[in-house]
């Protein structure tokens, strides 16, 4: 399966490029808004991603920023691509944030998970058990849509050039019985199978490792093919909120944290053996 450009990534690239062009002119956001007769917060909302750039808004911005013909063509294409629909748009009611859009074009995904198996490696039965546990009042249709949305993410792994996955899993994530012994047996088998894939590395952080750098909770680092155009994103998620971090200082902190986790965890070969022993317990 060929990789399709992510509108979420194109929208971020567009707002970053618009900020770069504004900085080049030496104008503040208020200066630009005043010159164009817009509300003073409109430019800020564009550049922070709080509102979308509309087709009618781009030409006056490019004129004011004295954009070159090449820049005009590039940003017009980005605007067009940013307004397209990703497959996940059909599940907007059950995928409330932008994470899937950021994940869709990542070339490398590094994640620490402390509570359950990461979504890209979950079996359908495991997904369904998690959804039912977390949405006890959901009807069958909502449950099915949430399951379908989570499983849809796994198409990433079928791309012509799939992303490189490096997962560090707390021992609790594979010890916690989700959906019953049979579901866990199949889930652990899926993890063991994934250990053999050339683009996947799995490390288990055993209880015996003690305290570690990520006691605060799970996180994911998303890297892209061009780190200048598309810098790394850190994603944090819990039951009540999600957060995307882009500032270099935050990214550097979580990158270092992930390095420490890898150093404390069992190496990939040891981790595969650990999973095999866990599988024998079911």
TrEMBL record:
Keyword DNA damage among UniProt keywords: no
One Pfam family here: DUF5753
GO MF terms, alphabetically ordered: DNA binding
Statement: the UniProt record of this protein carries the keyword Magnesium: no
Domain HTH cro/C1-type residues, every copy: 18-72
SMART domains linked to this entry: HTH_XRE (SM00530)
Keyword set, alphabetical order: DNA-binding
Highest taxon of source: Bacteria
PROSITE patterns: HTH_CROC1
Protein name as annotated: DNA-binding protein
Source organism phylogeny: Bacteria, Bacillati, Actinomycetota, Actinomycetes, Micromonosporales
């Amino acid at each position: 399966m060929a990789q399709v450009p992510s509108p979420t990534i194109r929208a971020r690239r567009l707002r970053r490029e618009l900020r770069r062009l504004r900085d080049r002119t030496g104008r503040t956001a208020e200066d630009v808004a005043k010159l164009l007769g817009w509300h003073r917060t409109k430019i800020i909302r564009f550049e922070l991603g709080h509102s979308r750039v509309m087709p009618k808004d781009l030409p006056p911005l490019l004129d004011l920023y004295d954009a070159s013909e090449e820049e005009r063509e590039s940003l017009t294409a980005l605007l067009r691509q940013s307004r397209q629909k990703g497959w996940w748009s059909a599940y907007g009611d059950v995928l409330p944030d932008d994470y899937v859009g950021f994940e869709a074009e990542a070339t490398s995904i590094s994640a620490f998970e402390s509570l359950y198996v990461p979504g890209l490696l979950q079996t359908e039965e495991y997904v369904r058990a998690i959804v039912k546990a977390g949405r006890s009042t959901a009807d069958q249709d909502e449950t099915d849509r949430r399951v379908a949305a989570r499983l849809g993410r796994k198409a990433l792994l079928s791309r012509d050039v799939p992303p490189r996955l490096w997962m560090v899993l707390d021992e609790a994530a594979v010890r916690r019985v989700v959906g019953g012994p049979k579901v866990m047996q199949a889930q652990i088998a899926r993890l063991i199978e994934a250990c053999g894939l050339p683009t996947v590395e799995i490390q288990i952080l055993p209880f015996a490792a003690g305290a570690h750098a990520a006691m605060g909770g799970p996180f994911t680092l998303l890297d892209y093919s061009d780190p200048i155009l598309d810098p790394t994103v850190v994603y944090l998620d819990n039951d009540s909120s999600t957060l995307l971090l882009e500032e270099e200082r935050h990214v550097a902190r979580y990158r270092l944290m992930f390095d420490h986790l890898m150093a404390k965890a069992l190496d990939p070969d040891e981790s595969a053996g650990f999973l095999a022993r866990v599988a024998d317990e079911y």
